[in-house]
Amino acid sequence: MLLGELGVFASYAFAPLSLIVPLSAVSVIASAIIGIIFIKEKWKPKDFLRRYVLSFVGCGLAIVGTYLLVTFAPNSHEKMTGENITKHLVSWPFLLYMLVEIILFCLLLYFYKERNANNIVVILLLVALLGSMTVVTVKAVAGMLILSIQGNLQLDYPIFYVMFVCMVATAVYQATFLGQASQMYDSSLIASVGYILSTTVAITAGAIFYLDFIGEDVLHVCMFALGCLIAFLGVFLITRNRKRAIPFEPYISMDAMPGMQTMHDKGMTVQPDLKASFSYGALENNDNISEIYAPATLPVMQEEHGSRSASGVPYRVLEHTKKE
Q1: What's the number of CA atoms in the CB half-sphere (13 Å) around residue 127?
Q2: At what angle do helices 218-240 and 25-39 cross, to 10 degrees?
Q3: Residue 144 CB: number of other CB atoms within 10 A?
Q4: E-strand spans in the chain?
Q5: In this structure, which of 39, 67, 280, 315 has its CB flanked by the most CB atoms within 10 Å?
């Protein structure tokens, strides 16, 4: 993973941001194929297509979308010098974009923290907004480092350290929100929705900050957007086929035990339902329970013995009242 992330970090210095960000669909395709091979699940041939047909269709769509992205994406970008980055940073389109993003981020954060809006779109949109700034700063830092290695020193520009601090800060908070989302939602849902939102916002930020689509004709832009949509659909189908985790039941269900009589026919349950309040104790709907199920009592036994001269054997009289 470290080598992969280093490779992605270095790639930002050699290609446009709008091309690199959508190509993360390749990792989803690789994960699906490697998972099928190395998990070694036992399956019957007739179940294979039923279980993995969506994964195969998703992989095919993601490959087609990736091909369109590579073919019609912007293929030229300027050198990441300190002067160019400073010029883009103070340009009015990016300042307007930053204003809109800050307002939207504050609103989403308010609803998430104060109004308990724990919807997955809200959380992952916070991640996407932070991620757009992460990729913008990563491209700037990587480009300036590569130029410095090549002999054109860029580390003496203050903008390098500003971008580096922003890169680290946004990456840390992005991981924090992702961790919170992973505790509430399934990982496959996070992967699909997060990929779609993060890619869309990152491409928008790259197009505004680095002017990726300046000089591109309408056909190339439309085909690039079509490739993104096809890749989005492919990733959604791949992650949709993942197995969902079975929630742990904190009690033994009485009706799941073979041969155990239950009271469900009369509208009563012995154990609480997971969807209801988690509590033990009284039965549900037990208004008339005393009439049906009375506490078990031991019978009263009385022994009456005749005299020694009386004939016959001693006998026992079992006395039960109607109530008992």
Answers
A1: 24
A2: 30
A3: 26
A4: 300-304, 315-319
A5: 67
The closest alpha carbon to 239, from 303, 281, 297, 185, belongs to 185
- The rounded Cα 237 to chain-centroid distance in angstroms is 14
CA angle 36, 123, 10 (to 5 degrees): 60
DSSP H/E element including 2 = helix 2-11
Closest CA to 266 of 306, 304, 293, 294: 293
Q: Using one digit for the tens of pLDDT, what is the confidence trace for 246-277?
A: 545 455 555 555 555 554 444 444 555 544 44
Half-sphere exposure of 171 (CA within 13 A, CB side): 13
Burial 60-94 (b: 16+ CB within 10 A, else e): ebbbbbbebbeebbbeebeebbbebbeebbeeeeb
Overall residue count recorded for the chain in this entry: 324
Q: Give pLDDT, residue 277.
A: 46
The model's pLDDT over 126-154, given as tens digits with 9 standing for 90+, comes to: 999 999 999 999 999 999 999 999 888 88
Measure the CA–CA gap between 199 and 201, rounded to whole angstroms: 6
What residues have CB less than 8 Å from 14, skipping those under 6 apart? Answer: 146
pTM for this entry: 0.69
Virtual CA dihedral for 192, 244, 63, 174, nearest 10 degrees? 30
Structure tokens at 9: 């970090």
Please say whether the beta carbons of 128 and 178 come within 8 A: no
Alpha-carbon distance of 87 to 211, in angstroms, equals: 12
